[in-house]
Design the sequence.
């Protein structure tokens, strides 16, 4: 028995690089990029990946995001990609006054907050071990 069986149901774990630009909100946008979490899957089994991170730091702040990719979309060369998309978590439009640092939660309900939407595709597959490794 070899390390990698020809049965695609047993295909090795892999991850994808991704990059996207958010929508413009409050006069600015952010970039998101990173790597999905590894998942076992092939180009035809419809598997998905979890991904998360923080956006680029623009306009004095960043946003968190968490999402799951769409199912695997096969390419003609036997590889695959995934659609990504979602909405960032809220961030203050103007920085709240923080006197001593730490986490500040919304308390007065009046501070303007905003979020961004993003949509894109995963890029190359990363993290595969070479056959015969």
Sequence:
């Amino acid at each position: 028995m070899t390390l990698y069986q020809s049965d695609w149901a047993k295909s090795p774990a892999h991850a994808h690089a991704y990059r996207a630009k958010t929508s413009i909100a409050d006069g600015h946008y952010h970039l998101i990029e990173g790597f999905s979490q590894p998942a076992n899957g092939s180009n035809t089994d419809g598997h998905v990946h979890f991904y998360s991170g923080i956006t680029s730091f623009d306009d004095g702040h960043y946003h968190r995001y968490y999402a799951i990719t769409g199912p695997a979309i096969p390419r003609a060369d036997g590889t695959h990609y995934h659609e990504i998309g979602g909405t960032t978590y809220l961030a203050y439009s103007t920085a709240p006054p923080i006197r001593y640092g730490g986490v500040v939660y919304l308390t007065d309900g009046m501070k303007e907050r905003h979020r961004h939407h993003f949509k894109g595709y995963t890029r190359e597959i990363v993290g595969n071990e070479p056959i015969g490794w």
Q: What stands out?
A: The chain has a mean pLDDT of 80.
